[in-house]
Amino acid sequence: MAKTALVVDDSTTMRQMVSFTLTNAGFTVVEAEHGKDAVSKVAGGAKMDIVVTDLNMPEMDGIALIKELRKMANFKFTPILMLTTESAMEKKQAGKEAGATGWIVKPFNPELLLKTIAKVLPA
Amino acid sequence: MSNDFAQFQDAFFEEAAEHLAVVEEGLLQLEQHPNDWDLLNKIFRSAHSIKGTAGMFGFSAVAQFTHKMETLLDLLRNGQKAGSPAVTDLLLKSTDCLKTLIESAKTGSGIDEETVQRLTADLAGASTSAAQPAAARGLGGSAGAAQPGCEDRTYAITWTPPDWLFQRGLDPLQIMKELNDLGSLAKVTLNTSRLPDLSDLDPERCYLSWEIQLATGKDHKVIESVFEFVREDSVLKIEEGEALSVKREALESGNEIRFTNDERRAESGEPKPLGEILVETGVVSRETVDHALAQQKRVGQILVEQKAVTPEQLEQALQKQRQQETAVQARKSDATSIRVDTDKIDKLINLVGELVITQSMLSDLGSRFEIQQLPVLLERMAQLERNTREIQERVMGIRMLPIGTAFNRFPRLVRDLSAKAGKKIQLVLSGEETELDKTVIESINDPLTHLVRNSADHGLELPEERLDNNKPEVGTIRLNACHEGGSICITVEDDGRGLNREKIIAKAVKQGLIAEHEKLSDDQIWALIFKPGFSTAEKVTDISGRGVGMDVVKRNIESLGGTISIKTATGQGTTFTLKLPLTLAIIEGMTVRVGKETYIVPLLSILESIQPKLGSVKTVAGRGELINVRGSYLPVIRLYEVFALQPEHTEPTKGILLILETEGERVAIMVDEILGQQQVVIKSMEQNFRKVEGIAGATILGNGTVGLILDVRGLLEIAQREEAVAV
Amino acid sequence: MPVSARETSVGECNQPAGLTTDGNQYLTFNLGEEFYGVDILRVREIKGYSTVTKIPHTPPHIKGVLNLRGTIVPIVELRTKFGMPTVEYTAFTVIILVVVRDKVIGLVVDSVSDVLNIDKKDIQPPPQFGSKVNVSFMSGIGKSGEKLVTLLNMEHLLVDGDMAENSVAMGEA
């Protein structure tokens, strides 16, 4: 069965790039524009194999989203990767505390993205 | 850097333009509301987004510059730095600079290096408390890109992960697997000494630790990177032991690279190079292939050697090739795209679904048709026609954008103009939601800019002059857009000095445009300013008055099939009205019925609809009818009276009153019935007929007949005139 | 006032500018017992009568507008225009779509008759009926065999009042 991924980013370009890479790698991708959108899309109990989320977003930011997801039974142990920037490394700490599995520093290329996902994706 | 993301560049440029608009608009608003944190967050997010995405495409100049802006914005939004006009100014200038940087990334256009340097320094200066490292790192994460290890090493690793390991979705098994991929795990010892009694055990916590012996050619950093996500929270020791005598394949690192290449090719369906296959099948050795590859020459080089072409000819051909490449590139960037609400697309998909159903019903009917089924056939045909028309309308609707996207640049422009000219100007925008075709929006940008510049420069007076003339010190420029007839009507209005009849005549005579004592109507005189080369500015400023201008504006508008007209009053101001006929324009309308006629009322003008109580409509001696709606008296217009129709109801309590608003005035219009709400495509009445008072345009209704769209303003005028006659 | 540029754009029937009745082919139609003719080059198409939408504030001979493949076309009832009594529409009632100054206008007539060749020499200038009958919309009286055909000057037929807003009874301030 195809692996599923939840991709959360308010930047359409960014979201498309991540989705594109994951889709090509055989994932079934669900996209969300921000945290609230993401939560609403999985609130029904959908399970995902991986979550890739941006941090700076309107409505509900990445940190809040991670906290929210970790409270949900279907996301308790799901790997969550955050997309962060060099300058926002303090966010990395906040993300970890919220329950993020790992991070990818922008800019990244498709190989790094897939490599990082492979790193945290349960076999 | 191999970059599969390149195909998303266009999307990035489009998104970046939107973010730039958000930043610019936000900064302008910030001047009025310096403590609006939401606003600051929004601006920050947009800048941040540009930075992050620009980096993805290797636009490092954009990323680095935005980073500087972002740093300052971050300080502002965290309250670590207080906002000031100077800071806003700096950020606005930086936004401009960023625009040119992005443009440069897009088209390769030149940039003003000096400005970039200066602003970068200014931004850094303004962010004094920021101790951020500059310079975006290259492709992040690929720490310690595996150096080809010449000797094998063993590492002794002890790892005690944090007990919340699982709660972050981390899996120790994954880490073992990754380590194993680096070389060979010689020995792994699980330490369970921290495991509590079963009764105290929390299954979601990790009490384990490991001792690992790894043999690998990789260096320390690579090992560490395996623990990237847990290193800081773990007790981790990685010690290098003695080199293992096991001889591993010397080509290890090379193998790995080849492997990823293979994967990439497999994904993209790209065939492997010939040499690769030959090596794999054992026909030749890798060294032989590499040697052969090194011998390979480019076609041009070979041809020159064979004296088939001269080096000059080759150079010319190469140049041509480069030109073609550039041309292809340019064509690529010319291709425009449009962002469409998924809502609109969903509706279209639904409609196409309906169309398919209708079509299948029709073919079913056709396969066993009998004449008594004619009514069914006709009904289906009508349905098909409806479907088709609706799809056509929706498809047109995709191209429609609110004119606000064109208006948004003006607050900035006016701000700059007022500063330059020493005038005080406020800009009032209205009707931003008026939708029009994307191409039209793009084409009216320049004419509108010129008109606004014109108003700021020539129209409005200096503050002293305004005060002397008992006018408010601050001049006003109003930009308004609305649908009118089959046209979009855009007005640029100022409350300045108005056009000067004498000056225009004198100038026109001097330029030989008219004879000295020619008798001209006012309109004819105003029209003179649209003549090529005509400019009345007393001094040539750098804002406008360069002689190229109004004639170009007029030409542009006319090339769009539109008209431009002037209304002016000495000392009171000038209004330029642009009318652009737009068969593509679509409005949201309410269909209403009066007698047998159907009319469409623009939804935007409807405030509410009420069924009046008995006696609530009052006749005021000779002043027509009024209705009291929550304390204010509104004139009542009986549509059947104004349009001379046979209505179903003449008693207001039986009909419906629509409360409409136009330009701040409210009016109640009486109709028989409200039929429903729908999007209508505005068709021009003027194309084959003329303007009709009280009618803004026409549309094709679902049954194929023409429906008229009411012109609320016009109705109000009719009502006021009739009132005046009654008095 | 709008400063509009009138482009000499070319309609579908490729109408040479200024051409009135110099051509000699006419589409003839009936209004009651009378024959009328309109320059064939102006005729775009002929269609059966269909429901029109009334337009307020227009003279009675403007029947309304209808949808001609997505464009709005005004419909003029010639009987009313010429002061003739109106009749019930029949299966023969047709709308002749003509092009006048780049605009498409529909004329409701009792029935279409024929396309006739009328030589210039067979065309007489419109007679003077005194002030009783307005002859400005006639370009002449053509003779074809025994038939007398009133040739219409489309430019004049519709210029005097129908197509300009200000001519409407109410008159703007």
Total helices of chain C: the number is 2
Overall 3D form of chain C: globular
Determine the mean pLDDT of chain B: 77
Question: Which structural class best describes the helix and strand composition of chain C?
Answer: mainly beta
- Percent of residues in beta strands of chain C: 35-45%
Largest interface chains and counts: A-B, 46 and 52 residues
Instruction: Give the class-level CATH name of the largest domain in chain B.
Output: Alpha Beta
CATH class of chain C: Mainly Beta
CATH superfamily of chain C: CheA-289, Domain 4
Q: How is the main sheet of chain C built?
A: 6 strands, mixed
Overall domain count of chain C:
1
Summed up, the helix count of chain B is 23
Strand order of the largest sheet of chain B: 14-18-19-17-16-15
Count the strands of chain B? 22
The CATH architecture category of chain C equals Beta Barrel
Structural domains of chain B: how many: 6
Share of residues in helices of chain B: 40-55%
CATH architecture of the largest domain in chain B: 2-Layer Sandwich
Shape of chain B: extended
Q: What does this protein look like?
A:
The complex is a heterotrimer of chains A (123), B (727) and C (173). With 123 residues, chain A is α/β, with parallel strands linked by helices. Chain A has a single domain, classed as Response regulator (Rossmann fold), CATH 3.40.50. Helix content of chain A is 42%, strand content 21%. Chain A contains 5 helices and 5 strands; from the N terminus they run βαβαβαβαβα. Chain A has a 5-stranded parallel sheet with strand order 2-1-3-4-5, sandwiched between helices. The two termini of chain A are 13 Å apart. Chain B has 727 residues and is of the alpha+beta class. Chain B folds into 6 domains: 123 residues, Four Helix Bundle (Hemerythrin (Met), subunit A) (Up-down Bundle); 88 residues, Ribosomal protein S6/Translation elongation factor EF1B (Alpha-Beta Plaits, 2-Layer Sandwich); 47 residues, no CATH class; 57 residues; 180 residues, Heat Shock Protein 90; 141 residues, Roll (SH3 type barrels), CATH 2.30.30.40. In chain B, the strands form 5 sheets. Chain B has a 6-stranded mixed sheet. A 5-stranded mixed sheet of chain B has the order 6-8-9-11-10. In chain B, α13 packs antiparallel against α14. About 10% of the residues of chain B have low confidence. Chain C is 6% helix and 41% strand. Chain C has one domain: OB fold (Dihydrolipoamide Acetyltransferase, E2P), CATH 2.40.50. In chain C, a hairpin with a 2-residue loop joins β5 and β6. Chain C is built from 2 helices and 12 strands. The radius of gyration of chain C is 16 Å and the shape is globular. By secondary structure, chain C is mainly β. In chain C, the strands form 2 sheets. In chain C, strands 9-2-3-12-11-10 form a 6-stranded mixed sheet. Chain C has a 5-stranded mixed sheet with strand order 4-7-8-6-5. Chains in contact: A-B, B-C. Chains A and B meet through α1, β4, β5 and α5 of A and α1, α2, α3, α6 and α8 of B. β10 of chain B pairs antiparallel with β1 of chain C.
